[in-house]
From TrEMBL:
UniProt name for this protein: ABC transporter permease subunit
Summary of subunit composition and partner proteins: The complex is composed of two ATP-binding proteins (CysA), two transmembrane proteins (CysT and CysW) and a solute-binding protein (CysP).
PANTHER family: SULFATE TRANSPORT SYSTEM PERMEASE PROTEIN, SULFATE TRANSPORT SYSTEM PERMEASE PROTEIN CYSW
Gene3D superfamilies in alphabetical order: MetI-like (1.10.3720.10)
Record localization: Cell membrane
Keywords: Membrane, Sulfate transport, Transmembrane, Transmembrane helix, Transport
Membrane-crossing segments per the record: 28-53, 95-119, 131-155, 193-216, 256-282, 302-321
GO MF entries: ABC-type sulfate transporter activity
Species of provenance: Rhodoblastus acidophilus (Rhodopseudomonas acidophila)
Membrane topology qualifier: Multi-pass membrane protein
Pfam families the UniProt entry points to: BPD_transp_1 (PF00528)
UniProt-listed InterPro entries: MetI-like (IPR000515), MetI-like_sf (IPR035906), Sulph_transpt2 (IPR005667)
UniProt function note: Part of the ABC transporter complex CysAWTP (TC 3.A.1.6.1) involved in sulfate/thiosulfate import. Probably responsible for the translocation of the substrate across the membrane.
Length: 342
């Protein structure tokens, strides 16, 4: 029946795994370690080696340009180099700020969508449920470049919604400034954008598309295994839908939700294909991956690796957080099974 809750009982059986031959086990471990070393560990080490190729001062100069001694007389060449370094540093920080700003918008929206989609597909049976699950997985099967082109075809000057999108004026949220109470409200936007494509708004839309499956897919298996018994019991005792959601559902999926948020954040930081298409390669629209590409194309390899090292550190942090959550989830499940056995 459409809209009916799905009641599920999950049966698990623990079967002992057959012992592996020592030679086979050692070979498989060696292959796994070799693969991880060649394709992950060595490239990661190389990023930091290249980033510090000009020393620690050279690394810092990518983010903070060197300042001449006070009172020093500079030649025209030195003045030009310092000005160029200041411009490059400003663009790098602009890319870092835009990347963080996009993630700050994309991740909360995907939390809301992921919770709603996982709740709908696991707690209720309705027509179109299979189609909704397929749509959730769509970004996994579509190239990010194709996704960016779709946004251009829809919202570009000659797109389906081009006439509306090209005349849309919206304030730049990153330009919010304090202006005091002389004009009434103390906050105001210093800059407006007209249009969608080739603006930060297009980058946000493209990032939402490529990242929205992560939270939903992290929650769906856990919600399916938990079933609906606890929610139905809470509703039968008089709890409202919102109270049941916040007191029963969210605490049960908090670790899976955090796991999906971490993956979504990492993908938002590192997205390149779709963002490259909709950004227009304008300097003010550069995110960190686009900034790395431009530095590399300018043969500024050390600066490119320095910015890449920031992304690498984010990836390492994501891996550590992901491992910690998996360990915490496994321990909670083990304690739950032990409690049920007793």
């Amino acid at each position: 029946m459409a809209g009916a809750p799905i009641a599920k009982t999950v049966l698990t059986s623990a079967k002992p795994t057959p012992p592996a031959h020592p030679v086979v086990r050692a070979t498989l471990i060696l292959l796994a370690v070799s693969f991880l070393t060649i394709f992950i560990l060595l490239p990661l080490i190389n990023v930091f080696v290249q980033a510090f190729a000009k020393g620690f001062d050279g690394y810092l100069a990518v983010f903070w340009p060197p300042q001449p001694p006070e009172g020093a007389t500079l030649t025209a060449v030195q003045t030009r180099k310092l000005a160029e370094a200041a411009v490059q540093t400003s663009r790098t920080w602009s890319a870092i700020g835009l990347t963080l700003g996009v993630a700050a918008i994309v991740v909360p929206l995907n939390i809301v969508f992921g919770l709603a989609a996982a709740w709908a597909t696991t707690k209720f049976n309705f027509r179109g449920r299979a189609l909704l699950l397929s749509l959730i997985d769509l970004p996994f099967s579509v190239s990010p470049v194709v996704a960016g082109l779709v946004f251009v075809l829809l919202l570009g000057r000659n797109g389906i919604f081009g006439d509306w999108a090209t005349h849309l004026t919206w304030p730049d949220p990153f330009s919010l400034r304090w202006v005091g109470f002389e004009h009434g409200f103390p906050l105001a936007f210093a800059r407006d954008f007209t249009g969608v494509i080739f603006t930060p708004l297009a980058i946000v839309l493209a990032s939402i598309f490529v990242t929205f499956p992560f939270v939903a897919r992290a929650l769906t298996p856990l919600m399916e295994s938990q079933g609906t018994e606890e929610e139905l019991a809470a509703l039968s005792l008089g709890a409202s839908g919102w109270r049941t959601f916040w007191k029963i559902t969210v605490p049960n999926v908090k670790w899976a939700l955090l796991y999906g948020v971490i993956l979504c954040t990492a993908r938002a930081f590192g997205e390149f294909g779709a963002v490259s298409v909709v950004s227009g390669h304008v300097d003010v629209n550069d995110t960190m991956p686009l900034r790395i590409e431009k530095l590399w194309n300018e043969y500024n390899n050390q600066a490119a690796f320095a910015v890449a090292s920031v992304l690498a550190l984010l990836a390492v942090f994501t891996l550590i957080a992901k491992t910690a959550i998996e360990w915490k989830t496994a321990r909670d499940l083990q304690q739950q099974h032990q409690g049920q056995a007793q």
